[in-house]
Amino acid sequence: MTDARQKLQELLRELFQFDCADLDFGIYRIMNHKRAEIERFVEKDLLDAVARELDQGALSSQAQAASQLAEAAQEVRGNLGADAISPEGDLSEQYRTTPLGQRYVELRGQAATYRARPGQETLVFNHLYAFFSRYYQDGDFISKRRYSRRERYAIPYNGEEVYLHWANKDQYYVKTGEHFTDYTFKAPGGVTVHFKLQAADVEQNNVKGEKRFFIPLTAKATWEESSREVVIPFEYRPLTEQESIPYGTRDQQEKIIAEALERIPAKFRKQVEVAGALTAERRKNAKGDSVSYLEHHLRQYTRRNTSDFFIHKDLRGFLERELDFYLKNEVLNLEELLAGDDQRA
Questions:
Q1: Dist CA 80 CA 277 (whole Å)
Q2: Which residue from 52, 233, 262, 287 lies 20 to 30 Å from 121 (Cα-Cα)?
């Protein structure tokens, strides 16, 4: 698999949130319903479509040019001698002014301009990656209309005296977060696990501030043997300056979960049945790896309480318009073509 193809497939999996396949609420339930179809598109249908278009387009022309060149070479050797063309394909200097020689040189020049199939595929995959990645930022799809390389964005203005516009105007906003309810699940062996929120530092008046995360207080987790209940307290707050060092600036909640998956079972290492219940396999993920009860429910809990998303009213129409712009300005570059025409005129 080429790097360009793999990079595009990874971007599409991120766009379609394949890492959230274990979530079963809201928009994720809809995505999961189409998961197999999307996976087939990313793994097979997209590649087949690229190959089919290349076969019908550039590669078809390339094959035709190669066939014409082979016929011309055969004609040159038949009329001008077997040594008229070197093993490397170069025409002997003495025949370059002949009609057959001129035609051969012209066809050879045309054939040399074509890319090999791997190069063609890499170019297509790189363009697809560039197109989709320009509308994807920090886990969100941003529908900003492109205008030109210098004035980057365009507003769909039709001459109104007053016109209000914002980046996600064509989208519905769905807020699922910050319910802050306790979360309970049943683990094997009759063990009941409670996630209880002890403190929540929320944004006031819907004003965006520092990012907040669900942080398990592992040291305060308890096991009540009589009721067979595990209680794991959480805080919902921004990271402290010291916490920001190991968690970095990206995927902090994932890193917090990864750390919790080690520390929480370790907390109950003396209660073997508790540790076993938390780490027991609940399911397999898309890669076939084991996902424990604790991991599954930690992701459910954090995502359910913090997932906001937008639904575009006409995403297909938006992408078709943007693709038209991309092809004209990034692939064909009409500005340079028009400038070249003016210079020739």
A1: 85
A2: 287
